[in-house]
Design brief:
Layout (H helix, E strand, L loop, with lengths): L1 E4 L5 E4 L5 E4 L14 E5 L7 H11 L3 E6 L3 H17 L2 E6 L14 H19 L6 E4 L28 H18 L4 E7 L3 H9 L16 E7 L8 E3 L2 E5 L1 H9 L3 E7 L6 H18 L5 E6 L22 H11 L4
Parallel strand pairs: 4-5, 4-13, 5-6, 6-7, 7-8, 8-9, 9-12, 12-13
Antiparallel strand pairs: 1-2, 2-3, 10-11
Length: 342
């Protein structure tokens, strides 16, 4: 990345779109709220009581929890129970609004308008259900930039506009903007995060700047309150992530801080599923050290491990009976105990 300050003191960054884009000084720290830094993912259908989940999170040192849902009683009821229980201990619940590019039959929406209307309605219903129970932030969509209708080649890093499908781009824009607007229509003060993954900064830039992959502009500029990202081991280190295998890596959170000026959350991270537990424990320690060191300089509000329980040892950190999976569990809990979220 090349950052430059103009004669009018405006900073710009040169991107892989071969353009200078306005930004702020990437060296300036971004202040973000504390208290939710250590987090973990879960699912609404876990067979545990909210009290069991709270005790499990406390043992890990986690104070934030991400869980996906749509507007259905079977999903909202357990999430509401969690929200009520979390309020008693001061935990943060981040609901993932799990809508996207397709209707209930799995068909891609026909237009940006169709995607917007459907997603707005679903997100508004979720906010209407969860807002009264103390939920104050939401994540809008899950890896939608990696849907087969949006990314042209999933092996591409996502740093260039031409990595994405120009024809279907309006459907993505409509879906995400619909979720944001739906939540804000019910809870104007709620914080809305928008999710990206791998190195999809071309996608986040195009949404932010109101552009299409073909370079055309003039579309509504999307504004979110939190930039959220996924970073698994195969993607590379998010602080020096690669660009389609060519050239040196770049600091993705620093770039997002400079471009969008919003808090950053890593809402999914873990080692590759095929790694053994000792490797995973070492990876947990290494990544938590790196995340913790960068949390204030890069405005990182939360890092959420994936996942609490996976039903096996590919990703989970506890077993079906809530027993720890070691050594990853010990590595995680030891780090949180020794490094306060403050």
């Amino acid at each position: 990345m090349i950052y430059q300050r103009g004669t009018n003191d405006q900073f710009y960054v040169h991107t892989w779109a071969e353009r200078w884009r306005p930004c702020t000084d990437p060296r300036v720290p971004l202040e973000v709220p504390t208290g939710a830094f250590y987090g973990i993912n879960g699912h609404y259908d876990y067979p545990f009581t909210p009290q069991q989940l709270i005790a499990t999170l406390q043992a890990l040192g986690c104070t934030s929890y991400r869980v996906g849902c749509v507007n259905s009683p079977s999903q909202l009821k357990p999430v509401i129970a969690l929200a009520d229980a979390f309020r008693t201990v001061g935990f943060t619940l981040l609901p993932l609004v799990n809508y996207g590019l397709r209707d209930s039959a799995g068909n891609l929406y026909a237009s940006e308008r169709d995607a917007y209307v459907a997603n707005r309605a679903g997100a508004a219903a979720i906010a209407r259900a969860l807002g009264p129970h103390g939920v104050k932030m939401y994540e809008c969509g899950n890896e939608l930039t990696r849907d087969r209708a949006i990314i042209l080649d999933s092996t591409n890093a996502g740093t260039k506009p031409q990595d994405f499908n120009n024809k279907n781009w309006p459907i993505l824009r409509g879906a995400i903007q619909g979720m944001i607007d739906g939540i804000k229509s019910v809870q104007p003060s709620a914080k809305c995060g928008v999710n990206f993954t791998v190195a999809d900064v071309a996608a986040s830039d195009m949404l932010w700047d109101g552009e299409q992959p073909d370079g055309s502009g003039g579309y509504r500029k999307m504004r979110w309150d939190i930039t959220t990202w996924h970073n698994y081991q195969p993607y590379g280190d998010i602080f020096k992530i690669g660009v389609d295998g060519a050239g040196p890596g770049f600091n993705l959170p620093a770039y997002c801080k400079a471009r969008y000026g919003k808090p950053f959350m890593i809402t999914e991270w873990n080692a590759a599923p095929e790694e053994d537990e000792q490797f995973r424990a070492d990876y947990v320690k290494q990544k938590l050290q790196r995340f913790y060191a960068a949390r204030k300089n890069e405005g990182i509000q939360a890092v959420m491990y994936y996942v609490l329980l996976s039903g096996d040892r590919t990703f989970g950190i506890i077993q079906n009976d809530l027993a720890p999976i070691d050594p990853p569990h010990t590595a995680f809990s030891a780090f949180t105990a020794a490094n306060a979220d403050q």
